């Protein structure tokens, strides 16, 4: 069982808390000095800390307690800490809550509130340890996948992307057509490369074509080739993409933008594997695996009569959906670091992401997905005037809220500047109550409140903005 560490220089306070926790089934340890507390924490059997803020008779500033708290966080960033004192100002308490303290209570304390808070801290500690175990397990699974498959340099850390890549490597061995769906810039082409690189065709050509970007008058020549004189300007024989991909994989991007005429011509070659070069009467037959991609809802397009259902059946034997970057925030910083290193040219000092830049990256919604992230990193490498990238270098200085799970955005707009939330008033108020309750339960620690609500940290911040919920105001009210 994880123990509660009581840190206070007053023996009577320690005894009272020991008895209180013992009555409620919680095991305790006691330390009367910050140094003794740090030695106990270093042994690793502490589940929560209840600490005083002053350890000398003539001290009321709370600086000793603040220093101890920060040292605890340095040793174990996830260890929950409850601050207790009769002297420290509210401003100091709020600052430490922003830095990750679970809660702040004054002396004399309310027994029921202390017990409830510490029990919640222990539960969150257990949940945090379980999450850590799951993250370690996920990392081992990613490493195992990388050892056995060619991931073509793909960088990711999220479980959502791990499932996508695992499916791609699994279906790669088959020869069935694959349809990759997902928003623009999310990495569909990279996933198609992974499918090809792990297939029996990997030594054969991987040919890419933007199917939706071809006008009808060029479609046949591009896909199937053309003989000399087949059209004005055709002064030499042209090999089409199907013929170039013979034996390998043909990647048809933006398939949802293909015209009705283009869909009909593509369907014929997919059904028979046969085609004629433009201007030729000789039929050719190829062996090509088709991997296609789209950001469109093809089933909705079928219902609207603008996409052929029989073509979808040919393309979509296996569908792989890539989630947008906003749904896999764990991938943002690894991708940003990779792009940053790739952008720094020879002879130039390496750049690093500053803390504010990382918070801005994590707080952004990424409507342009991975492609937008890459572009912003490229922008930053051109504009950065020091060795540390800032939000301004990224073009995110006035857009992204901080999302480290414990702090309020530096220039976070007040609720008065936010538009009113849209929707049923009762539903809005119920959502407000549930968010406020979670924030108060976890002492303002956004990461933990978000976990309880089943949201990402940035999603919770966005909802707080929309509903006009201020973190500092909730802490003061509670």
Annotate the secondary structure layout.
Elements: E1 3-7, H1 11-23, E2 28-31, H2 34-43, E3 46-52, H3 63-75, E4 81-85, H4 90-98, E5 103-106, H5 111-148, H6 159-172, E6 178-181, H7 188-197, E7 206-210, H8 216-224, E8 225-226, E9 238-239, H9 241-244, E10 249-253, H10 260-272, E11 274-276, E12 283-285, E13 289-294, H11 298-303, H12 309-315, E14 318-321, H13 332-343, E15 352-353, H14 355-363, H15 369-383, E16 388-389, H16 391-394, H17 425-441, H18 446-453, H19 457-467, H20 471-477
Helix pairs in contact: 2-3, 6-7, 13-15, 17-18, 18-19
Structural account:
InterPro entries: AAA+_ATPase, AAA_lid_NorR, CheY-like_superfamily, Homeodomain-like_sf, HTH_Fis, P-loop_NTPase, Sig_transdc_resp-reg_receiver, Sigma_54_int. Strands 2-1-3-4-5 form a 5-stranded parallel β-sheet, with helices on both faces. About 5% of the residues have low confidence. The chain is elongated and about 100 Å long. The protein has 478 residues and is of the alpha/beta class. The protein contains 20 helices and 16 strands. Helix 13 packs across helix 15. The protein has 4 domains: 127 residues, 3-Layer(aba) Sandwich (Rossmann fold); 168 residues, P-loop containing nucleotide triphosphate hydrolases (Rossmann fold, 3-Layer(aba) Sandwich), CATH 3.40.50; 67 residues, Helicase, Ruva Protein, domain 3, CATH 1.10.8; 63 residues, Arc Repressor Mutant, subunit A, CATH 1.10.10.
């Amino acid at each position: 069982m994880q123990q509660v560490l009581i840190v206070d220089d007053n023996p009577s306070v320690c005894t009272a808390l020991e008895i209180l926790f013992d009555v409620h089934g919680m095991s305790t340890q006691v330390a009367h000095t910050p140094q003794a507390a740090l030695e106990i924490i270093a042994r690793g059997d502490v589940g929560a800390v209840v600490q005083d803020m002053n350890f000398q008779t003539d001290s009321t500033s709370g600086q000793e307690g603040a220093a101890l708290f920060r040292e605890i966080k340095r040793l174990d960033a996830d260890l929950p800490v409850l601050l207790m004192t009769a002297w420290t100002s509210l401003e100091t308490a709020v600052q430490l809550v922003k830095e990750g303290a679970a809660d702040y209570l004054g002396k004399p304390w309310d027994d029921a509130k202390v017990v409830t808070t510490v029990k919640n801290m222990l539960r969150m500690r257990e949940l945090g340890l379980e999450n850590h175990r799951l993250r370690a397990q996920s990392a081992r699974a990613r490493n195992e996948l990388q050892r056995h498959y060619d991931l073509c340099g793909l960088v990711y850390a999220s479980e959502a992307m791990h499932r996508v890549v695992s499916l791609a490597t699994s279906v790669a061995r088959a020869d069935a057509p694959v349809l990759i769906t997902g928003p623009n810039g999310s990495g569909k082409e990279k996933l198609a490369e992974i499918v090809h690189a792990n297939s029996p065709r990997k030594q054969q050509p991987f040919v890419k074509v933007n199917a939706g970007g071809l006008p009808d008058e060029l479609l046949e020549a591009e896909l199937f080739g053309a003989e000399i004189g087949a059209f004005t300007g055709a002064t030499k024989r042209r090999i089409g993409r199907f013929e170039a991909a013979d034996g390998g994989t043909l990647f048809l991007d933006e398939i949802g933008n293909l015209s009705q005429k283009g869909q009909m011509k593509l369907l014929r070659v997919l059904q028979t594997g046969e085609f004629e070069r433009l201007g030729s009467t000789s039929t050719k037959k190829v062996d090509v695996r088709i991997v296609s991609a789209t950001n469109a809802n093809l089933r909705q397009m079928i219902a609207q009569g603008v996409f052929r259902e029989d073509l979808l059946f040919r393309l979509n034997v296996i569908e792989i959906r890539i989630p947008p970057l906003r749904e896999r925030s764990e991938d943002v910083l690894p991708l940003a670091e990779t792009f940053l290193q790739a952008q720094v040219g020879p002879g130039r000092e390496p750049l690093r992401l500053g803390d504010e830049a990382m918070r801005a990256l994590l707080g952004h919604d990424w409507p342009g997905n991975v492609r937008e992230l890459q572009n912003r990193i490229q922008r930053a490498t051109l504009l950065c005037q020091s060795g540390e990238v800032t939000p301004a270098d990224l073009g995110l200085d006035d857009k992204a809220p901080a999302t480290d799970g414990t702090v309020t955005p530096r220039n976070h707009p007040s609720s008065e500047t936010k538009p009113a939330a849209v929707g049923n008033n009762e539903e809005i108020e119920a959502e407000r109550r549930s968010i406020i309750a979670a924030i108060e339960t976890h002492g303002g620690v956004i990461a933990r409140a978000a976990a309880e609500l089943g949201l990402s940290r940035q999603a919770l911040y966005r909802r707080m903005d929309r509903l006009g919920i201020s973190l500092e105001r909730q802490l003061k009210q509670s």
